[in-house]
Amino acid sequence: MDKIGLIAGSSRFPINVAIAARKRGVSVYAVALKEETHPELEAAVDKICWISIGELGKAVDFLKENHIKRAVMAGKVRLSHIYSKSVKPDGYLKNLLTKAVDKRGDTLLMAVANFLDKIGVRLLDCALFLKDDIVKKGALTKIRPTKEQLADIEFAKPIVKAVAQLRIGQTIVVKDKAVLAVEAMEGTDEAIRRGSCIAGEGAVIVKMSSPKHDMRFDIPLIGPSTIKTMIQVNAKTLALEAGRTLLIDKEELIKLADAADICVVGI
Amino acid sequence: MDKIGLIAGSSRFPINVAIAARKRGVSVYAVALKEETHPELEAAVDKICWISIGELGKAVDFLKENHIKRAVMAGKVRLSHIYSKSVKPDGYLKNLLTKAVDKRGDTLLMAVANFLDKIGVRLLDCALFLKDDIVKKGALTKIRPTKEQLADIEFAKPIVKAVAQLRIGQTIVVKDKAVLAVEAMEGTDEAIRRGSCIAGEGAVIVKMSSPKHDMRFDIPLIGPSTIKTMIQVNAKTLALEAGRTLLIDKEELIKLADAADICVVGI
Predict the structure, then answer these.
(1) Looking at beta carbons, which residues of chain B come within 8 Å of A179?
(2) Where does the record place the LpxI N-terminal domain (chains A, B) (predicted)?
(3) How far is B81 from chain A (nearest CA, A)?
(4) Could you tell me the residue ranges of all domains in chain B?
(5) Would you give per-residue pLDDT tens digits along chain B (267 residues)?
(6) pLDDT, tens only, A167-182
(7) CB pairs under 8 A between A and B
(8) Does A166 touch chain B (CB under 8 A)?
């Protein structure tokens, strides 16, 4: 593989993908979203095309012009954009939204993947270049979970799996074997804040993906910002599904967690 | 039945139970919670015993002294009290909390029911005196759901049933076949606000109970305050499970909804 497309959403995830790919000698051609993508991506890639979320056609032209046959999709795109009046979908995107059976995140991502496939671009596992940053089993931090926290994690596992399988969200917040918050479209950090606001200190956060999760996109991921949210609200335990969760800026994340006596554990 | 106990939580629900029971010639002996119960309950019952949430023993004494054999439990008790430092559980309540396998709402309510049973008080269906206020199938308001809203309700039904069966919560907020918010411990109105904040206008709210729901307590209920929340955030559609949802202050609720062009429908 000498070059790859990168469909870039928010956070440092696409930047990390670009850096890792270029380290392996692969050229990176990025489609970046004005509403989402970090401007620093520009310096990390070989070529970049900035589009607004509505402008799918422009992305198609860029990928075709540069003869891109394989691509990785990295970083979130807030689904709430589809309710925003400032986003003007072009003909391609309108067609894609009209054909979608519902507007769940994974339905729309799959629609984008199928669309790319039709124009000759195959989407690959988004963690392809970042295998070292996938969570492994066991504690990643100095602090390990207590017996009580482990009991809360065991309580939460089947619930968060079911919630993920219903394609609602991938995170729940528990304490003392009660479900305090379930993530839907508002995002992980907001769910952590809500649950911790009820729990006071010591909420336990558990993140898992659906058993049917398509690893080409929307892989569960955690970055330093989640640890910062946990610090703000005094949450102490973060359990992540091993083998299926990606850490963004892993070293910084673990350093932050260790400094705040937060336990991050792969389950 | 010449007399009944009433374990009273928040809202006007226990007041409506007391009024309806006394209309049928049944005397009402209420255990009221200082942290939850509306002071107006006092005028609507024959005898009242005000306790703090921690003082289960006081409630036992009151029920025994008045020879209460049957009781109804009406109105919410915020589960978050168990995390509050101001609540001091007495020996009875400590014992009950220690024995409970988890701290889900229905686990604790069942534990209270079993506890009452042991002291000779049988808990009855909480809607016993309010059968006319149970939601029936079809629109309760002048406005009926549109084709799009009906499609969103159909989309939501299996999801909210599954969420209820997981004993997370009974309400979800959807729009254009996407799940915007799932209720956990924060309560219905907060979930409606959160979902509507993402959806802008026109969120669809669907409330259903678990198939295994114990109708003695925590029956899904909607009062005028939920309609007021919907008005604030421009939500227009409220779908409620027929036969299993109770309307509090039904006439006022429907009047409010009609005045705001809100559709309330039994499904």
Answers:
(1) 104, 167-169, 184-185
(2) 3-131
(3) 9
(4) 3-124, 132-266
(5) 899 999 999 989 999 999 999 999 999 999 999 999 999 999 999 999 999 999 999 999 999 999 999 999 999 888 778 777 788 899 999 999 899 888 877 888 899 999 999 999 999 999 999 999 999 999 999 999 999 999 999 999 999 999 999 989 999 999 999 999 999 988 899 999 999 998 888 899 999 999 888 888 878 889 999 999 999 999 999 999 999 999 999 999 999 999 999 999 999
(6) 899 999 999 999 999 9
(7) 103
(8) yes
CATH superfamily label, B132-266 = LpxI C-terminal catalytic domain (3.40.140.80)
Partner residue opposite B177 with nearest CB, options A102, A163, A186 = A102
Of A101, A159, A175, which has the smallest distance from its Cβ to B168's Cβ? A159
Three-class secondary structure assignment of chain A: CCEEEEEECCCCHHHHHHHHHHHCCCEEEEEEECCCCCCCHHHHCCEEEEECCCCHHHHHHHHHHCCCCEEEEECCCCHHHHHCCCCCCCHHHHHHHHHCCCCCHHHHHHHHHHHHHHCCCEEECCCCCCHHHECCCEECCCCCCCHHHHHHHHHHHHHHHHHHHCCCCCEEEEECCEEEEECCCCCHHHHHHHHHHHHCCCCEEEECCCCCCCCCCCCCEECHHHHHHHHHHCCCEEEECCCCCEECCHHHHHHHHHHCCCEEEEC
Distance CA A157, CA A174 (A): 10
Question: For the domain with range B3-124, which CATH number is right: 1.10.1380.10, 2.30.29.30, 3.40.50.20, 1.10.357.10?
Answer: 3.40.50.20
Is residue B177 within 8 angstroms of chain A, CB to CB? yes
Q: Phi/psi zone of residue A191: left (φ > 0), alpha (ψ -120 to 50 degrees), beta?
A: alpha
What is the ipTM, given to two decimal places? Answer: 0.78
User: Which residue in chain B has the smallest CA separation from A200?
Assistant: B83
Q: How far is B45 from chain A (nearest CA, A)?
A: 33
**Residue B178 touches partner A, C-beta closer than 8 Å:** yes
A104 within 8 A of B177, measured Cβ to Cβ: yes
Q: What does the alpha-carbon distance between residue B191 and residue A137 come to, in Å, rounded to a whole number?
A: 34
User: Which of A83, A169, A179 faces B200 most closely, judged by CB atoms?
Assistant: A83
CATH topology of domain A131-266: Cytidine Deaminase; domain 2 (3.40.140)
